[in-house]
Design a protein that fits this description.
The protein has 361 residues and is mainly alpha-helical. The chain is built from 12 helices and 2 strands, in the order βααβαααααααααα. The protein has one domain: Rhodopsin 7-helix transmembrane proteins (Rhopdopsin 7-helix transmembrane proteins, Up-down Bundle), CATH 1.20.1070. α3 packs antiparallel against α5, α3 runs parallel beside α7 and α8 runs antiparallel to α10. The longest helix is centred in the middle third of the chain and has 37 residues. It is globular. About 2% of the residues have low confidence. It is found in: Membrane.
Length: 361
């Protein structure tokens, strides 16, 4: 029988290096890069207070988006499917982040902890990593579909069906689960005992390489390329329309304004995604340096922790910003939101009136 209250000694590849935990244990040349009490407190404030606030706002926004999308069909079926999937993944990711960074779950340490706590943290962290990867690639899928709509409209209208989205999402999910497998294996090897520590280190090294490549290095440039292509193609189409029409009437002006709003929304998503993900690149570089042999361990770990805080906030903002972008740039979503609120408050008002109305036998 598995004893979850058993204290296990883990390899430590998933935590801070042992010699970097305190200045007493660090070597003379590395003591300057051991985090002070003040620095640890600042990081704790960022994670617990700022992160919790962003998570709460993002969870509420994701719930509202899901409620609106389930009540109203605001886009073609394929786009609607991706929007629902994006909101679900955001809700999943933010909920796990809110749980794992809540004080009762910050338990144990890198060298010895209860088996039950270690397994719980492993499950939560694996879910967070999977949600992060899925979110980034769903955004890429949205950009790819937008690319088809603008650059290949005939194919999009006649050939692009919901079954293609199902196939695409199946491939994305299977690929993301495969990419995150080394991280899960590292936790399993840790639990199996000290003789598996070398295997755990190899698994973490593979996880780091996959993380840097598939979370930032591929999605960010790919989405930027797709969006830039969309904007240039749309501008050429708009210029062609102006040449074909001698006098732009009110209807054409309205179409032009709608197109500009769509381009603005795309650029906002790209800029925000790139801005909030860019910190992942230096963080990944420091994580890779850990296995290269260059530099001191504590120095690399110190700068990795600094960039990790920025990555943490960027990931939370990436999963929390969609609701606000929809409200600002998507008129149909805004109208659906207002209609839903009006309906809700009207029903609430009727319920209050019915409750206060005197009953006659």
């Amino acid at each position: 029988m598995l004893a979850l209250d058993k204290v296990v000694i883990v390899c430590g590849h998933l935590g801070s290096p042992l010699q970097c935990v305190s200045k007493i244990m660090a070597e003379d040349q590395e003591r300057a890069f051991v985090a002070t009490t003040t620095q640890k407190r600042v990081r704790q404030i960022i994670i617990l207070h700022v992160g919790s606030t962003i998570s709460a706002v993002g969870i509420l926004g994701s719930l509202i988006c899901l409620f609106i999308f389930f009540r109203h069909r605001l886009a073609v079926p394929t786009t609607h499917y991706l929007l629902v999937a994006s909101s679900l993944i955001d809700l999943f990711y933010l909920s796990l982040e809110a749980i794992i960074h809540h004080p009762p779950f910050i338990v144990g340490n890198r060298n010895g902890t209860y088996l039950g706590s270690y397994i719980s943290l492993g499950v939560l962290r694996s879910g967070i990593n999977l949600g992060q990867l899925l979110r980034n690639w769903i955004i890429v899928c949205l950009g790819f579909e937008r690319y088809l709509l603008v650059c290949h409209p005939m194919y999009f209208r006649t050939q692009w069906k919901l079954k293609h989205i199902h196939i695409l999402m199946t491939v994305v999910v299977i690929t993301c689960v495969t990419i995150r497998t080394p991280y899960v294996l590292a936790y399993i090897f840790d639990i199996w005992g000290p003789e598996w520590c070398n295997a755990s280190e190899i698994a973490i090294a593979l996880h780091t390489i996959f993380d840097v490549i598939f979370v930032a290095l591929i999605p960010v440039p790919l989405l930027a390329y797709l969006s830039a292509t969309i904007v240039m193609k749309s501008n050429r189409l708009q210029a062609w329309r102006v040449k074909m029409i001698s006098k732009v009437d009110t209807k054409q002006s309205r179409i032009k304004n709608v197109n500009q709003k769509a381009h603005q929304a795309i650029m906002v998503v790209v800029i925000c995604f790139t801005l909030f993900t860019v910190a992942f690149i230096p963080n990944g570089a420091f994580r890779l340096l850990k296995y290269s042999g260059f530099g001191t361990k504590c120095k690399i770990h110190f700068y990795r922790q600094v960039t990790a805080s920025l990555v943490f906030l960027g990931d939370l903002l990436n999963s929390s910003m969609n609701f606000f972008i929809y409200m600002v740039y998507w008129a149909r979503f805004r109208r659906a939101m207002i209609t839903t609120l009006d309906t809700y408050f009207l029903c609430l008002k009727r319920a209050v009136v019915d409750r206060e109305r005197p009953r006659h036998c």
